[in-house]
Design goal:
Length: about 325
């Protein structure tokens, strides 16, 4: 791994650590996970089928995040819970999971190099996570599947609605950062608090004028992408700034300045997660190449297709269900 890749990996890990710790001042830019009713339905159905197919299975969940798959699996395998191991690049994610599920083994590592014995799990899963570590991470996941075991992956697709949403979120955040909304707001509030304490008002008026183009940029972003873009954080931040500005004497300067500083860090981390999500998405050629490699290493592909929600023609991503055993068809 190059020094540049190592640095990027470290920054992404830090970004997800901040996300899973949930330390944001008001939760702005705390969005970034993937939620859709069809996803939960898919995993519930998957685990019900595996409950019938396997007895006392061992399970590995890769890029576990908030532990959604672990919770789902334990809910389905209620009477005979599987022995579960989870891995994630984020130490905070693993810590949270192990606190919630004391019987689950947690491991902090990169999905492209998992220090576990080959062919040691009956079920290997990942929900929009393993692909972040690159195409080689899927081969690494496959390495860990025991004979007759199942590899079940949901992965980001370039044609998917999640990808499109991430692209819009990233565009909104990039434009807000380019407008310098946060540093200009910080300068205005500093000058405003000084004026409230009896200082010269002129610096405050000048700072307010300098902020105006950034306010207009935020208006354009919200008009173009809607108030829900970036999990509603752009609109929320815009609204909070206006509210604080309107009642500035009622606020503690240190709290407001600290809040803005935290939001600046959160926005940077959020942009990193959205960029990573975009970069992780696979086009059809990428996906078919992964399927072919699995097929060539002895996996039978039960499902290899776009993941469609009921009543929606646009996919959420890719779904891959493969069994370690005889060769199967690549056709969905």
């Amino acid at each position: 791994m190059t020094a540049e890749a190592t640095s990027e990996n470290a920054h992404l890990s830090q970004s997800w650590d901040s996300y899973w710790r949930g330390t944001g001042g008001i939760g702005a830019w705390s969005a970034g996970g993937v939620t859709h009713p069809a996803i939960k339905e898919f995993w519930e159905d998957c685990f019900r089928r595996l409950l019938v197919a396997l007895e006392e299975p061992s399970m590995l969940d890769i890029a576990s995040g908030n532990g959604a798959l672990i919770e789902c699996a334990l809910g389905i395998f209620r009477e005979t819970p599987p022995a579960i191991t989870c891995v994630d690049l984020s130490e905070a994610a693993i810590s949270n999971i192990c606190k919630r599920f004391p019987d689950v083994r947690g491991l902090v590592c990169d999905a492209s190099s998992i220090p576990l014995e080959s062919k040691s799990f009956d079920i290997v899963t990942s929900q929009f996570g393993v692909e972040y570590a690159g195409p080689g991470a899927i081969s690494e996941a496959a390495r860990l599947v025991a004979p007759g075991g199942y590899l079940v992956l949901l992965m980001h697709s370039v044609a998917g609605s999640i990808y499109m949403e991430s692209a819009a979120n990233l565009d909104a955040i990039a434009r807000l950062r380019d407008s310098r909304f946060i540093p200009l707001t910080l300068a205005m509030f500093r000058a405003g608090f000084a004026a409230v304490r009896g200082g010269d008002r002129a610096p405050y008026d000048d700072a307010a004028k300098l902020l105006q183009p950034a306010v207009e940029a935020a208006d354009r972003i919200i008009a173009e992408h809607g108030e829900d873009v970036a999990g509603g954080s752009v609109a929320q931040f815009y609204s909070d700034v206006a509210r604080i500005h309107g009642k500035l004497p009622n606020y503690d300067p240190d709290e407001v300045i600290g809040w803005l500083a935290r939001l600046d860090t959160e926005m940077t981390d959020y942009a990193s997660r959205m960029e990573a999500m975009k970069n992780a998405a696979m086009d059809e050629a990428d996906f078919r190449r992964v399927c072919s490699e699995l097929h060539d290493t002895g996996f039978s592909l039960e499902v290899a297709a776009p993941f469609l929600a009921s009543g929606d023609d646009r996919s959420l991503g890719w779904v891959l269900v493969a069994v370690a055993g005889d060769h199967g068809s690549l056709d969905p």
